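Deviations from the work plan: none for this task. Representative record:
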Amino acid sequence: MKTNINIKNRVAIVGAGMTLFRRRLKETPQELAFEASRVALDSAGLDVKDVEAVVIGSAPDAFDGFHMKGEHLSDGSMGYMKPVKRVFVGGATGVFTAIAGWWHIASGLYDIVLAVAEEKMSNARPHPQGLFKYIWDPIVERPLNPNLIWIFAMEMHRYMYKYNIKKEDIALVSVKNKRNALDHPAAQAAANISVDDVLKSEVLVWPVQRLDISPVSEGAAAVVLVSERVARKITDSPVWIEGVGWNLDSTHWTSRELAYPKYLEEAGNMAYRMAGIENPRKQLDFAEVYDPFDYKELHHMEGLQIANKGEAPKLTKEGVTQRDGDLPICPSGGLLGVGNPIAAAGMMKVCELFWQHRYEAGKRQVRIKRGYGLAQAWGDLMQVSTVVITKT
Amino acid sequence: MTKVYKSIAVGVEEEKRIITIYYKPYIRYEFSAGQALSRYLQELKNGRIIGRKCNKCNRILVPPRLYCEQCFRMTDEWVYVRDEGIVNTAVVSYITQDARKAERPEVVGVIELIDAPGQGIFHRINVDPKEVVEKTVFGKRVRAVWKKSEERVGDVNDILYFELVKS
């Protein structure tokens, strides 16, 4: 049953666009935002004058290398002389940007909003990894010289230990997503690899190996959101946003059960209630689950209640999550295959919802039988999740 | 059709010609540790671990906090806890903080304290990496190994590492 929430406008996605995802691009952050925004606007068949407000998503300022990133990006994001706001919840930013765009319209404040996410990570030399130092607690954690991959490795290993999951079963996610990405025209890390390739790749922080991880990327992605009134006028095939959810756990990650993302369960429930979804495993047609690391896709499938605790690897092994399976996960190729320009990667997943629902995904197309799709992202200090549910 | 703008990637040869702007901000950070963590650091200097107890949910918070984030009230009392715990998770790092190859592997993880259930300390664990890879270190009892008292300064590195308790 749908929750009776007070929403003034039903919201639809009517356009989507993105740039290539690559390690180092010649474009500036503004130029990348401009390109993605322009493609999205054109695909919606709207003019810059039609867009009433803009939401920008971008991860830490330190990546691009200057502060006030939102203000800096606003020109290239169609924000000139418009109400503009930047949102930021770490890796979960991309999907959150779409959520913020949604509430601009659902509240009744605007009819047409552009939501754009951009990231430029290779500006920082020798490696953007060095900047992740500043997400750790300065008093009790930084003195131990932590690397961001440590925290993923600790979570992955706890997950593997608690549910007795094998590395080779986790590696199947990387194999699937990189293969799916072969059909994505923007993909950076598409490849035909085997489980063996993953298991033989360089060990970074055991149990995390090179091919368990998405690459360092740059790029931008954008969607155009409109109210139902506008949608009915300009398109025959709007993609409705039926549910949104987000939830944040404490930064005290050492006092959390790392094997299960409870905050994601809460975020998912919020979105499911709004969309009227009671059984996500049976009602969703596909899901763009956040996959910066291969185990994260499994972890998130469980938090989203698509799989029981510890059983996402089983669904993966059985082929349920393949593009031709009963519930395709990351048909786009995900972050592992398409790339991971942090905020833009989450927005790429929202773009994929748009293309899949409209049967515009080409070789990546999944069958839309029941009507629902889901995109999810995750971030901050392993503590936040954002969820969007769409319907044809 | 999936609409993609064909942005231009920098080639390998071109990458060598990139002009790097080198800039080192002249800035130091002097962080406030806060009321709870300041006491924690002082007690580390004394070779002890201290937490704060919330009398509403009965959790002992380590590292200590001035307030309980769940009950959203001030915590009530200081409680010393033993420097012993159970390995909750552990990993072997082969890279440095900025993703370069480390000189030697380092084991780090979360130690769930015996006297503060559900509360963990993030630190180094001095075990054979093989025990981590085989996951045999999980659930094992470990104890803090401290620097000599005259070397302790009131920092998390006053604990050298945690090591297995011989049974």
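Chain A has 14 helices and eleven strands.
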